[in-house]
Amino acid sequence: MTLVRIVALTISDDVVRWASPGCKEWAEGLEREAKVIESDWAALRWALGSTRVLLDRRPIPLTSLDAVPAATQKFVESVRFRAGFVLAMSIMYGLQGLLYLWKFCKARNTLEFAACALVILFSIFVGVYSLMERRRLNVPWYDSIYDDPLACTHLYKERLKRRDSLWIYFSYFLCWGLGTVMFNHGESYDSFEVICEVIYLGLFFLLIPPVMYQRKQNNLRRIEEIDALLAEQPSD
Amino acid sequence: MGMKMRQSPQTALVLAEFLSDEQEWRYGYDISRNTGLKSGTLYPILMRLAEHRMLKTNWETAVEGRPPRHMYKLTKDGLRYAREMVSESTVQPVGKPAYEGVGL
Questions:
Q1: Are A153 and A116 in contact (CB under 8 A)?
Q2: Among A53, A121, B38, B78, which residue has the least CB neighbours within 10 Å?
Q3: CB-CB neighbors (< 8 A) of A55 in chain B
């Protein structure tokens, strides 16, 4: 076996290994095709193309109502975890606000004042929002619901339809990052350093839209699967 | 709030390829060769079609010495959609195959 072929097969195997649960079957299909391509270079090109599957992160599709309780349970666990995380974040925002309030009192120029004001205002906003969000997330869930797939399905769908508030937290980190950059460079302004830090921040935030888009797509996909399953149910 | 099926020229190409023999199960690599689409373009299209229940998938029966391959075929809804879409668009097969040579 040539080195090119080995590389192609290794890539294909890794794509199968790292593919998301909902794309596993497709990744395996791609891998099998790579094995039957005669030309080594063509197999390598095929394998390289197959890595695109790794960008698609989706859960296993729901094919029957019986699978819904397990999916709902997993979803509920993630919501509970998020509620705890949001509480921790609201505490962090409070502390961050206090820290910048202290910095505000010691600010020496307009840029430092502006930086502190930005972080303080956003800390207050996101802190309050987090507390409200936690209340919203902590809707009581009772375990007996998992015994009734149909009720579970309706509940799951209702939860999936709720809007995603992740962008608020990302916005906070953006403001906090900008505030920090502005504060650190308030006195000794070095444009090159500022540009570098803003570029780092920008690169980090470039990752956010794809993550949010993927989450939204997965939710829409789930809702469609649920609708299809519900449509298959005999009406009373 | 449904997800829409993207009507790209590449999707039309893939659908036209399926229409060339509606009853036959197709391999991904064969579709790729006939349409000139690369794996990274073809598979998202196939996945999208399957997601909209327009494509069914199956693993072929194992043949000795060769692992089973994944096969694809349009569903009734898929065939209907394909006929509509292909008749609307001017589908021109890509001349040069994406990959050459397949060992069976």
A1: no
A2: A121
A3: none
